[in-house]
Design a protein that fits this description.
Blueprint lengths: L1 H16 L1 H5 L6 H16 L3 H24 L5 H14 L2 H4 L7 H14 L15 H13 L8 H21 L2 H21 L4 H25 L9 H18 L1
Length: 255
């Protein structure tokens, strides 16, 4: 595509001519790649398609920029990146590009995981990045393990585990040993994430929505106190709780 070729040439030109672009390495722009990825997710969450279009462009820039860095160091090329992903898509979709028959999307996913193992992975739970937020990483690991049958049969069983971990956390708190409290709190979170799969909830998205809801309601408290000529630092919990309830009612009526 002519436009894409022009885009690639512009990135190469920047690497040659711009002092800042020349100085960058895979590591130096790593944080920006993460930020751009989250901006794409934010656009998706807000269902803002115009914003999504722009953010996908920024993300594409990072892919091509990393390829340009690698090409200058004779590490790999953009063509190799495209060739690799093209070959992978064909290999992992034998039901589309081959003669394999499947009965639905679940079998497609199962075959996908088997394909990964045949490519040299040592574990079915390999491939979940450490950089993922902990809730999302836990969800992905549990989901992968479930594909080979390592899972509760019913959601009620998964909830019993949550209840069990809650009691263990209380015992740890009573013991006063902070390391045990932290460990049991982590186990409880892990069990809650596991249960989320049985009720079709993505824990990362659910918590993100709750965080945004908290921000909206707390900002309302700050705004109302300012309108009343009061300083939030000297306001009582009772005053803030009352305004919190107001914000909650307003949010419910807007929903």
């Amino acid at each position: 595509m002519k436009e894409f070729d022009k885009f690639i040439e512009i990135v190469h030109h920047l690497r040659r001519e711009c002092p800042w672009d020349r100085e960058q390495t895979h590591t130096s722009i790593r944080h920006s790649l993460i930020e751009e990825t989250y901006e794409v997710l934010e656009a998706i969450d807000n269902n803002n398609l115009e914003h999504l279009r722009h953010e996908l462009g920024d993300l594409l820039l990072h892919v091509v920029f990393h390829a340009s860095i690698a090409e200058q160091s004779n590490e790999f090329t953009l063509k190799q990146i495209v060739d690799d992903i093209t070959e992978k898509l064909i290999r992992r979709h034998p039901h589309v590009f081959g003669d394999t028959k499947v009965r639905g999307s679940k079998q497609v996913i199962s075959n996908w995981e088997k394909s990964k193992l045949s490519e040299g992975r040592n574990s079915v739970i390999e491939g979940v990045p450490k950089e993922l937020p902990a809730l999302l990483r836990a969800h992905r690991l549990q989901d992968k393990a479930s594909k080979v049958g390592f899972d509760w049969e019913k959601k009620e069983d998964a909830w019993k585990k949550v209840d069990e971990e809650m009691h263990e956390l209380h015992r740890a708190i009573e013991s006063g040993v902070q390391a045990e409290v932290e460990a049991e709190f982590g186990d409880l979170l892990f069990a809650m994430v596991n249960y989320s799969r049985f009720i079709n909830v993505n824990p990362e998205i659910a918590l993100r929505h709750t965080v945004e809801k908290f921000i909206t309601r707390f900002n309302y408290i700050e705004k109302r106190l300012k309108e009343m000529g009061k300083d939030i630092h000297s306001s009582s919990l009772e005053e803030m709780d009352k305004l919190w309830d107001e914000a909650k009612k307003l949010q419910i009526s807007e929903d």
